[in-house]
Amino acid sequence: MPTDFEQGLLVGVLIGEGHFGGDGRQPHVTLRMHVRHEALFSWIDRTFPGGKIYGPYNHDGRHYLQWMARGRYLREELLPILERWVSPGVDAYSWQRLEAMRTTYRRQLGTAAPEGAGGGETTPTDAPP
Q: Structure pTM?
């Protein structure tokens, strides 16, 4: 089980550099950073096994790695950490994105609809800001 410090470090990186969303079919949390952060990705992979590292990629002059969490790992391991540490008081934008992911993919994540939310499925909200 990751320590509070390890959870906080991951959450801080995800708030600053990550994405909470999905592909229209399933939710995912994605972290994409330059390959110079390879040691950080290795640490994440060791400390939070269950996500997956992709790359390195070279695309349009960018050289990056990508870490993704989805499926059971996202639902049972990562989401509880995010729900514990991400709040409007810490970072309202990231909290809104997390809540949008939870709402859009509530069936896949097994989460309850937020108060005041309608009962129907919503469409993904992965458009750039």
A: 0.83
